[in-house]
Amino acid sequence: MRIEYEIKLGFKDVMIRPKRSTLKSRKEVSLNREFKFLHSPTIWQGIPIIAANMDTVGTFEMASVLTKEKLFTTIHKHYSSEEWSHFFSTSVEGVEDHIAISTGIGKEDALRLAQIIETNPKLKYICIDVANGYSEYFAGFVKKTREHYPEKVIIAGNVVTGEMVEELLLSGADVVKVGIGPGSVCTTRIKTGVGYPQLSAIIECADAAHGLGGQIVSDGGCTTPGDVAKAFGAGADFVMLGGMFAGHDESGGEIIEKNGKQYRKFYGMSSATAMDKHSGGVANYRASEGKTVEVPYRGKVEGTIKDILGGLRSTCTYVGAARLKELTKRTTFIRVAEQENTVYTE
User: Fold this and answer.
1) DSSP state at residue 294
2) 289 half-sphere exposure, CB direction, 13 A CA radius
């Protein structure tokens, strides 16, 4: 046993210090990024915000809208091959550049992935997703996937420390997903005592990834557009959102009405709700590590997209970053004890 005494920080522990700027308006800020990848020859362009691969977020309907805005969606892994084929036959132009197919690491997952990619060869991005990315078997699965699909972009996670980021990149991942326990419907930290404050995880993992020519996705912990800006300021190449995209028309999830108000069900993919739905219940050797909540219905997702991107552009003007790429270079975090005045709450 050992204790690390160096402090680790989350989004609520810091704010971004403003700096002098020559920008006249938020309109001058470009949020577009272009990425070349460590292993795949693919070049990606767009706004690097990702809808999480949850079946109450990462839907085909969400992808259709986010593609038009040049954002990205990791599609949840519970669509059939036939549903994928129908999606491609009816979807928006260029959608293959803004979606990833998600997979677990079991034998059935690998077979399903192969079947869907064979039927839909336009797919360019694969998201290999497990809650605990620290197993040797996981790194081996990433390596086998790279061997099978040398041209595809592979996103893999989740981890929170630099040495595991390096191992996954060397195993064949192009982008590593960073985050254990920060999600709004994740209970891993409560059930296991394991986790890592998200801001520090981003800083440390980005440093490791960029040293090898890879990228990271910050996955979880964002509740406001300001948190998204802090994630990019800390060095994240992409930011993945779950709860912030939940509750919309495009999100999926059961609609519930209470006292004349509408809600949509939103749950973690390790929750009892998800395992009852997709796995026949919680296995007797494990515990549920997710919660189920009812999110107030929020209408179409376009309004939320504008709110997030507007806040991010405003952050860039406060520190003089004309491009999103410049934000991390211009970010100075200050430690704080409070974030906002809460005398009036909604």
Assistant:
1) E
2) 19
d(CA 9, CA 15): 11
Residue keyed to tokens 């994740």: 186
Residue 232 identity: F
Give residue 271's pLDDT: 63
Which is the catalytic residue, given 186, 205, 222, 316?
A: 186
CA dist 150 to 37, 101, 154, 272, Å? 12, 16, 9, 36
Computed from CA positions of residues 106, 145, 43, 218, in that sequence, does the dihedral angle turn out positive or negative?
Answer: positive
Amino acid at 242: G
Q: Dihedral of the CA atoms 40, 42, 46, 50 (nearest 10)?
A: -40
How much is the pLDDT for 286? 63
Backbone dihedral region of 208: left (phi > 0), alpha (psi from -120 to 50 degrees) or beta? alpha
Q: Which pLDDT belongs to residue 265?
A: 84
pLDDT (tens digit, 9 = 90+) per residue, 265-317? 887 777 667 666 666 666 666 666 777 888 999 999 999 999 999 999 999 99
Longest dimension (CA), the chain: 60
Q: Give 30's DSSP letter.
A: B
Contact 259, 178 (CB under 8 A): no
* Contact status, residue 186 vs residue 202, Cβ threshold 8 Å: no
Give the span between the Cα atoms of 144 and 171, in whole angstroms.
Answer: 9
List, in order, residues 6 or more apart from 80 with CB less than 8 Å away: none
Token representation of residue 66: 């986010």
| 3-state SS class at 96 | helix
Dist CA 91 CA 103 (whole Å): 21
Percentage of residues of the chain with pLDDT beyond 90: 83
**CA 230 to chain CA centroid, nearest Å:** 14
pLDDT digit string (tens) for 160-179?
999 999 999 999 999 999 99
Active site residue 316: no
